[in-house]
Amino acid sequence: MYKQLISGFLLGLCFISPVFAGSAADDMEVTAPWAREVPPGLTTSAGFLTLHNKGNKEHKLVAAESPATGMVELHTHINDNGVMRMRPVENIPVAPGGTTKLQPGGYHLMLMMLKKPLKSGDKMPITLEFEDGSRKEIQAEVLHFSMEKDMKHMKMGH
Fold first, then answer.
1. Taking Cα atoms as reference points, which of 51, 75, 45 lies closest to residue 63?
2. How many CB atoms lie within 10 A of CB 136?
């Protein structure tokens, strides 16, 4: 009887161990989330952040949503014969122990169908979803965006 109890207990642990395993959202550290300020009348903006994978396997950001928008898409910029173009992507990978930056000119969140203008100083809730279905809620600060200032910032390696 005692052996059966122990055996059943150990078998049960095998089935529930995935519950105790870390999720992609648990492994992911999100820093410096921000969204670009847009004036009244514009209904599209962009969101940026840094993802750091503290885990030991690759994770992928596969979706995002916000109650402040009608839709959020994952995007990147590509060089199409000398012309920079935005394109949706299915996911944004983050290597084990690695960092992926979502920044102007690269990966970013396209914030579409804004329900109200984004003003500098506001906070915007965004939920990130990863390949295993886990989710992480963040607050992106809305910042004024200056292309000239930001391009200098990017060239300096920030």
1. 75
2. 20
25-59 per-position pLDDT tens digit: 999 999 999 999 998 889 999 999 999 999 999 99
**Residue 104 carries which DSSP code?**
T
Rounded distance between C-alpha atoms, residue 127 and residue 49, angstroms: 12
d(CA 143, CA 37): 5
pLDDT digits (tens, 9 = 90+) for 117-137: 999 999 999 999 999 999 999
Measured distance CA(36)–CA(149) in Å, rounded: 13
- Residues 70, 115: contact at Cβ < 8 Å? yes
Q: Which domains does the chain have, with CATH numbers?
A: 25-155 (2.60.40.1890)
